[in-house]
Amino acid sequence: MNVICKQAIYNREGKVAFYEIFLQDRRAGQYPEGFDPLKATSIAIDVLVEMGPELVGGGKLVFVNVPAIFLEASMFDLLSPKYVGIELVENKRLTNTLMEAIDILIKRGFKFCIDDFGFEKIDYLPLLNKCHFVKVNIKDNPYNQDELKEVISILKSLKKGIIAKNVESKEDYENALQLGFEYFQGIYLSKPVMVKDTRTISFLKSTIIKIYNAIKAKNIKKVVEIIEKDVGVTYKLLRFVNSAYFPKIKEFSNVEDAVVYLGLENVAKFVIVLALSDMFADEEEKKLWKRALFRASLAEKLAEIYSNEVKDKAYLMGLFSLSWEILGQKPAELARAVALDGEIVEAYENRLSLLGFILSLVELLEESGSDETIKKVAKVLEAPPEKIKEVLEVARKESEKFID
């Protein structure tokens, strides 16, 4: 399970000076293996916006990890520089766009920190005159004691705040003090503390349902606006539309063109499933989301046959029908919490309703896609068995396309 954690950074007097907020696999106690750093940044920013950085940091500055090559000034539009700092990681390709974004954010009052600093890393040097703090990994750096003292002396002369990272023992701490570090971070001083489980109802309500409602209203401008606020989703959408899944008409480089090309229906499925599945790194959970997407697609297709006007509701109903297994919350409770349509809530509680009937057929076909079951469902829906076979195959392909 992935959670958002914060870890205190202390000054030389032993008092908390700042916090760092980051994503962590709670079971492994480290960054989730293979998790998209863009999405991790988006989740951390979402949590700060939702909870308020002043609450998360108790009035102290909270640093957020941001992959430097994806930094955009707009990412921080909803956050105050009084409470939020920016820690740049993966500084391998510095561009004019990146430097301009940093300048804009500095003018707005944001403080910058460079992670894993070293003078031997040429890519860092253009950032040095812009940043306010630097972090040095005391466990893994190329310097001996005398060289490290010299590095710290130079950084102090440049008026940079210097943070010792990975302070894991009393010996580490005393050594860092002696070397002249000004700030200290590591499990010897403070272990990461959970701020929020990433699998939150408010995330579903504020992001996913907002996107889906904009798509349902056929408001392309609003859809583009919501997607562009999430740099991780933007990147993945453009990568998706330029992938082998679609005919190579041209290279898409902006969200609006991608949305128009894919069509709102495809964008709805992509964004919703991406937003949900990216919160889960565990393979078993991904398998459950694949099942949920299969149910969503199948429910939509069956609704088109039986009662076309409820197909949008049928999709969401199918998507959240496994919420107990995935989120530990009953479907009807979750549907109420995120303000889904009343007919969807009713479907989970009453299988005699129209959507409830469709959900029962979905479960029947999921459990057994045999010819006999297909014939029974076809008879009930007054449709040819071949049509039911077709929608089953389409649902399977869609679940594979969006999850795999």
TrEMBL record:
Source taxon at top rank: Bacteria
InterPro entries per the UniProt record, alphabetical: dGMP_Pdiesterase_EAL/HD-GYP (IPR014408), EAL_dom (IPR001633), EAL_sf (IPR035919), HDOD (IPR013976), RNase_Y/CdgJ (IPR052340)
EAL domain mapped to chain residues: 1-206
Location of the HDOD domain: 198-387
UniProt xrefs under SMART domains: EAL (SM00052)
Alphabetical list of PANTHER family matching this protein: CYCLIC DI-GMP PHOSPHODIESTERASE CDGJ, PTHR33525
Name of the protein described by the UniProt record: HDOD domain-containing protein
Organism of derivation: Hydrogenobacter sp
